[in-house]
Amino acid sequence: GQNIDQPTEMTATEGAIVQINCTYQTSGFNGLFWYQQHAGEAPTFLSYNVLDGLEEKGRFSSFLSRSKGYSYLLLKELQMKDSASYLCAVMDSNYQLIWGAGTKLIIKP
Amino acid sequence: GAVVSQHPSWVICKSGTSVKIECRSLDFQATTMFWYRQFPKQSLMLMATSNEGSKATYEQGVEKDKFLINHASLTLSTLTVTSAHPEDSSFYICSARVGDYGYTFGSGTRLTVV
């Protein structure tokens, strides 16, 4: 079966750094997405990785290791507005998105 | 950028009635539209995939006669929840594929059936 695992909830302090991990087992692989979703809103795109390595985009970075079926999203200089759920999704061999359950990130002052 | 406009944002309806949710691609042609449902504190669950001009493909366990999907044009896809019941209360989101690897989402519809 296809499976995406990520922690249910994480807590971090404003100004700090947090890493959200995602492991996956899917039928084929055509890339991994990270989305941010605030409560009651639709997901918004953060990153897309299809090759191994680190992609940096401002305060957010995403890492992928295809051999390990592993990715992480790194958030630096955390702000209160970063409190949200972060969804990991993998595009399988049929180009369908398989979604993780999301990680709720709580930022404390 | 590619934008999908979804309406209504929220709706409350009585049990037994039907509700239509619309998703319009504003500045691009959406050949494929994905319809998701999301219950509180859960991930997005794909309900069906619709392609313009053809019948939608429903995921296992999703009743096609209850969740009617119409994708009659390249800019409009609709989901109608027929004979809604309280257990259908959920957050419904549409998503369109943009290019080969991009996806854009509608703003979502919060459905409450009373």
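qc> Chain A has a mean pLDDT of 94.
qc> done
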